[in-house]
Amino acid sequence: MVLQKRLEYGFSGYQVPPIPRAARSARRRRSFESKTNGNQMYAFDLLATVAGKLLSEGESSSPSVDSFSLKGQLALVQDSVGRQEKSEEKLLEGKSGDQDFYERNFLFTDIVTDNPISDIRSDELEFAQNDSISKPNCPGKGDSAEHLVNDDCKLRLGIFTPANLESSGCRLSCNSGSDEECRKPRNFSVTNRADMLDSQHLTSGLVSSVDSVKFLICRDHSPSGSAPVNRENVKLAIIDDDESSPACTESSTRTKKFRPSLRVSNIHGQKLLSSKPCKATPNVKDHDRAVTERCNYLNRKRIIKHQRSLRDYPFKKRKFYDFVSNSDEGICCDRMCASPENGTNISALGSRPSLQREVLIWHVAFGSVKLKIKSFRVPELFIEVQETTTIGSLKKTVLEAVNAILGGGLRVGVLLQGKKIRDDTQTLLQTGISHDNKMDALGFTLEPNPHIAPSSQLCPDDHSCQLLHNNPRPVTRYPLSPNVPRTAIRDRNLDTPPDLSENNLNSLVESDHDSAPDSSLKIPGAQSKALVPVPSIERDALAVVPLRKCKRSDSSQRRIRRPFTVTEVEALVQAVEKLGTGRWRDVKLRAFDSAKHRTYVDLKDKWKTLVHTARISPQQRRGEPVPQELLDRVLTAHAYWSQQQAKQHLKSSSILTFFSENSRCTNP
DNA sequence: ATTAGGG
DNA sequence: CCCTAAT
After folding, report:
1. b or e along A520-535 (b: 16 or more beta carbons within 10 Å of the residue's beta carbon)?
2. pLDDT, tens digit, for every residue of A14-33?
């Protein structure tokens, strides 16, 4: 049972530039609520909330608050650790630099998440704007998503809006709560900072060109010191800096796990912090300007190291690397982003094409589960190009095809022990995925996304097709065909039947393109006539990646379903008309010689279904409608050749009887 | 390898 | 589309 707590935090310590008093007094205090799990509030949540609030107040110098600290603890949530320092730490800790780096980043989240937020004293949390911290080599600073995906900045936090998340290739995910809630942008989302600046500037006048900001997150203490009764929600309040915060002024002397000993404050973009541990009872009024003194990063680092050496951290150290797979191939980790929704870092499929993608998923909050998905395999990609196609063009074709597949036509499914987990609202814990799971049990699937990969051929019939086209979320009477991206046909060098002229061939190809489910697969520049991205293995999965190895051998894979197009049907009918129903090999050679995926068995089967289709009522037919004219020809040809066959049968049998009778007579 | 037919 | 018996 998760309790929602109601906490009230006051932010104080704004470095507010001169603002007309009138304007400032207009908004002394503002507050908003953020529904947060008080007990398990994630550092990321907190951070994002604070940062977002700040920004929504009009702060514009930087979109993100990249670091925050629990006093006395290293609390960078940012890869701002210089390489030099990394190596120092490495020596100190005797660990690999990476591990150390991650540990540093884990530190805060561990503290925060291992302990209820309410256990953290109001003055123990500090936020520092990222500008004030030495910037890592993270290009794309700003609110663009780039800094979220830069490899060097994996753990940096920023403001996450649906927009920049999307553009970074990441997607907000939510482990619990209703879908509605998940989709809702949180309070911290800041989309149009420029706009906001304008409006907020005038109305609140709270913050303008502040280039450094410091927050204190305070636990809610009413002035009397009594604990708030209602703690159902986390409440965040922004308090103007020249107004002492009632929430933060209380000097708690309670002994906490995390004794503040270090304060960080920023003035004009420079990191300042006391060189000595400050008192446990910081005066909120002081700390803004007066009490802070300049301190460089090393200074801070020294303190941290000192603290580290002096005591054990009140949290259990975690294994940071228990990657599941030790596959040797693949591309290095992809984009990372932090999801404030659940406090996890998630790397997502980017749009960069590669047949083998490696995806890292980090869960850094408590109960962390670290997953590494190595090498998503795009199972089958059917491409047919002409022999005269250049290698470069082929590359481009493949690239675009992969792009088309990865670029949104896919969704990811999760398999646990072979069973598909469909409930997106379940947490990993509820599902049974934990870090000590055998990772073999966990698998992912790439599936066609029915909402993105549109297609008439997705639709079993006309009716649902229209629904699909008119409605983004169609309710189809039939289950969508699982085999989505498929299209196709190819350039074929038919042993052209009499009236399958060049014109017909062209129309055939074009009509195939028209029926292409994914328009993105049409590649104008490419020389390929057609692309056939081919799902494989599972009915509704393009790929199943059980992390270890694919069980099903390739040979046992069911072929991809590729419905016949009208033009194919026409070619088939024409060939059968000429050759009859008993010579499927000839039919194949004549009309489908270059269509490698159509065997004579396929053609025979298709003819069978065509006959059946022609006999049933149009209402009962499914799939791409076959022109009645063709069906009529099917029936006609079928009748004719059946008759011929019967005749043939009669003949041969009569011949047989003749001979047998003859032999009986002549050979008594 | 093909054909024919059931599933 | 698959499977397979029968050619």
Report:
1. bbebeebebbbbbbbb
2. 222 222 222 222 222 222 22
- Rounded-to-integer distance, Cα A150 and Cα A135, Å: 13
**Tokens at residue A578, please?**
């000429």
Cβ atoms of A365 and A343 within 8 Å: the answer is: yes
Task: Specify the nucleotide whose C1' lies closest to residue A582 (CA).
Answer: B3
Overall residue count recorded for chain A in this entry: 668
Average pLDDT over residues A570-585: 92
State the Cα–Cα distance between residues A426 and A432, nearest whole angstrom: 10
Does residue A596 approach strand C to less than 7 Å at its CB?
no
Residue A125 parent element (H or E): strand A125-128
For the ranges A87-91, A362-366, A651-655, the lowest mean pLDDT is seen at: A87-91
Distance of CA A492 to CAs A224, A333, A386, A503, A530, Å? 85, 41, 10, 13, 11
pLDDT at residue number A232: 23
pTM: 0.28
Q: What domains are there in chain A, each with its CATH number?
A: 7-310 (no CATH), 378-556 (no CATH), 566-645 (1.10.246.220)
Asked whether residue A593's C-beta has any atom of DNA/RNA strand B within 7 A, the reply is no
A276 CA, C4 C1': separation in Å?
84
Q: A420 to each of A224, A413, A538, how far by Cα in Å?
A: 54, 7, 12
Look up residue A406 and give its two tokens: 């990865």
Average the pLDDT over A541-565 and give the result: 56
Which run of H or of E encompasses A229? none
Q: Name residue A620's amino acid.
A: Q
Residue A397 (CA) to nucleotide B2 (C1'), in angstroms, measures 36
pLDDT of A223: 27
Q: Is the CB of A622 under 7 A from strand B?
A: no
Inter-residue contact A63 to A45 (CB < 8 Å): no
